[in-house]
Design a protein that fits this description.
Structural class: alpha+beta
Number of helices: 9
Strand order of the largest sheet: 9-13-12-11
Shape: globular
Number of domains: 3
CATH class of the largest domain: Alpha Beta
Oligomer: single chain
Length: 317
């Protein structure tokens, strides 16, 4: 073995060792839900829309360019964050389900269903957009009465790719094990609001340039006039926010956004880019009753007013 071959051999062994041990340190087991990180890999439906789950995970889909996760590190971080969220839910778990009945006497308490939500507002959004529900069932159930495999699978199938027609679902094994059941009428004011979780990545350099100080307390929603529509920009995907917060000192803001009327990509496409710049496009949308935009192909959410933004968590890089 010559010197070059020896160097290549050593390099290969070091990379194999680092990769093996890196994966071990990333892998976690979450006791409350009985799942480890790698269990989720096969739950994610990515084959028809992405090249692979992450580079070199399995056989590439040569017809697609993007990976579901840009790197193996992103895959482990995202899945661990998701499993940690479910693992840390309170036990018993408060759960919600919207139903449509003619009267309260028509509620079937003998079978309450297996499709619930751990998010009250999500259940209300589902009533608004799909079920036409007029009553909200509220209950509690214990961790061992949840099908966590299916719940996590549904999370990656629907909840991550925000669509107000879907809900943050939790899959119940036995509806007889739901207790402390209460009911609420879904009132019109709640029915018409849409809430969603989103992320905003901000580098320390940009924060200093904009004069935000150490942390943002109120988001400026008057900027981005050179974009298709002016406003404050967010993404429903944390990995998109990470593109703007990569270095030490950068921050990712996890927020709750509230909308009365949300424009989609179709509405944007109807606004001629020749006739409108970012500022006039925003004015046009406001004059037509919209208070935000969700551009799904671009993975962007645009917010028009600071009071629509509630900061939930600041993640330091």
């Amino acid at each position: 073995m010559n010197e070059n071959d020896l160097k290549q051999f050593i390099k290969t062994k070091i990379l194999e060792f680092l990769n093996e041990n890196l994966n071990k340190s990333q892998s976690k087991y979450f006791t409350n839900i009985g799942l480890k990180t790698e269990d989720v890999f096969d739950m994610i439906e990515y084959h028809d829309s992405y090249r692979d789950l992450y580079p070199n995970y399995s056989d590439d889909n040569e017809y697609e360019e993007d990976y579901y996760f840009p790197t193996i590190q992103d895959a482990y971080n995202d899945i661990n964050e998701t499993l940690k969220f479910f693992n840390n839910l309170p036990n018993p778990i408060p759960i919600y389900r919207s139903i449509k009945v003619k009267s309260m006497d028509d509620i079937n308490y003998d079978w309450l269903g297996d499709s619930w939500s751990f998010d009250k507002q999500s259940a209300i959004n589902f009533a608004k957009n799909q079920s036409g529900g007029n009553v909200l069932l509220i209950g509690k159930t214990k961790f061992d009465n949840v099908d966590w495999n299916n719940t996590v699978k549904l999370w990656y199938q629907f909840s991550r790719t925000y669509d107000s027609y879907d809900e943050n679902e939790i899959n119940i094994i036995d509806s007889d094990e739901i207790f402390d059941i209460k009911t609420e009428k879904i009132i019109k004011e709640e029915f018409n609001k849409t809430k969603m979780i989103a992320y905003h990545g901000l580098s320390k350099m940009k924060a200093d340039r904009l004069g935000y100080g150490s942390e943002i307390s109120v988001f400026d929603t008057s900027g981005h006039w050179s974009q298709r529509v002016a406003g404050a920009y967010f993404s429903p995907f944390i990995n998109e926010a990470k593109k703007y917060a990569k270095r030490e000192g950068d921050k990712i803001y996890k927020v709750e956004l509230t909308f009365n009327k949300l424009a989609d990509r179709k509405v944007l496409d109807e606004i001629s880019p020749v006739k409108y710049n970012g500022e006039t496009a925003r004015e046009f949308l406001i004059n037509n009753g919209y208070d935000g935009v969700y551009d799904e192909p671009m993975k962007e959410i645009v917010v028009f007013y600071p009071e629509q933004i509630k900061i939930l968590e600041i993640i330091k890089i």
